[in-house]
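The record is kept unedited without comment:

——
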Amino acid sequence: MRQTSFVFICFLLGAVSTGFCADTYRDHLERGDLYYATFNNEKALEEYQRAHALAPEEFETLLRLTRIYNDLGRLALRRSEDSEPMYRKAIVYAEKLHEHYPQKAESYFMLALCHGSLVPFKTLREKLEIGRDVEENARKAIDIDPGFSMAYVVLGIFYRGISRLGWIEKVVANTIFGKNLTGTLEDSEKMLLKAIDLEPDNSFAHFELAWTYRAMEQPEKSMARLQKVVSLPPRNMREKLQQQQAQRRLEGSAGGK
């Protein structure tokens, strides 16, 4: 009897150590977030993938996988051939996010961001079609949550891109959609300032506004925004890359004086 009890106790202890105390998907997300905040995207991805294996339809898991793959695509852009495959993986999770959570602003924002990220790899017609979807999804995110600052950033980038279309591209857009895609540098500035009003320390918004001001031929305003980017502590590897780009731009400007 005593031997049976001892075996049963050992079984319980083993169950506690291997099953009852096993990591939850939230544990993996928390570890992934720590890696993400310390610029270790590879380790962050591993933890997010473990979370996904445990909770494949969980909102926070799908959101993080979309974000990390999009970040990895941007970090690889013009550096390796991994960029487009990473962006495409991000789209897979963005579409799952939208499928399961169509009422969430983040779902539409991620669709806008991820599809927009593929623009460098597309033909003119495909770029114009993507542009239409990017604007529509960013607007849907804002309709759901007017305080969602990053949706305004996407629109700011979109309008800056539209402002650069030549007359041939505009004719093509008119042929495809029956009307021209509209957007000016002033529209871009307005959207990015709105994002900053909602989130003053949004490094992405300041960075993109610097490029809009550059396109508007307002170098002093552009430099001021880059200075702001440099002053903000980066929260992830993508922001760190932007900070480095801003610093090089500032140093180049100072060297040219």
Remarks:
- DSSP finds 13 helices and no strands in the chain.
- Residues 200-257 form one domain.
- The CA atoms of residues 73 and 87 lie 5 Å apart.
- Residues 6-19 have pLDDT under 50 and may be disordered.
